[in-house]
Amino acid sequence: TETVLGDRQKLTGAILNLLRNAAQHTQPADSIELGYRFTRFGTNQNCRCVQFWVSDTGEGICVEDQQRIFARFTRGQQRRSDGSGLGLAIAKTVAEAHGGQITLTSPQGQGATFYLTLPKMTLPKSPQPPESVALPPIIGL
Asked: How far apart are CA 59 and CA 103, in angstroms?
């Protein structure tokens, strides 16, 4: 059986951060979409994974901000909220602590889509579910 192993609360928090960020950067007439799919990533597409996405039809993120907004206490130039600039940094830290990544696509003026990609693992067949899996500590949380 393949599954994603991880901290359910931290992963939920990461997705909620992405949704909150989308809600802060859209107008009432815009839309926000949450979804998932099974796909592959990594070199030679060798890692099977599950990919969650949060997509919105807001103003998008300028190219200059697309890499730097994942740093702690950093906000985009087009900010419309009073956030601390930690939400995307936390989501990135959680994804990386689970062996995954966060990426985004954002054609200027056409909204943004954030992808949280997590590797799937094959569990050995056993009559009992696994007890627990130790994850590396998430620094700064």
From this structure: 18
Distance in angstroms (rounded) separating the CA atoms of residues 61 and 64: 8
User: The whole model's pTM is what?
Assistant: 0.75
Q: Are strands 32-41 and 2-3 parallel, antiparallel or unpaired?
A: unpaired
DSSP sequence for 72-108: TT---TT--S---S-HHHHHHHHHHHTT-EEEEE--T
Residues 6+ apart with CB under 8 A from 58: 22, 25, 26, 27, 30, 111, 112
Angle, CA of 47, 70 and 139, to the nearest 5°:
80
Distance from C-alpha of 93 to C-alpha of 137, rounded to nearest angstrom: 10
* Tokens linked to 97: 């602590």
CA quadruple 7, 119, 101, 115: dihedral sign: negative
What's the residue count for the chain? 141
The rounded distance, in Å, linking the Cα atoms of 95 and 20 is: 17
- Band (85; pLDDT cuts 50, 70, 90): low
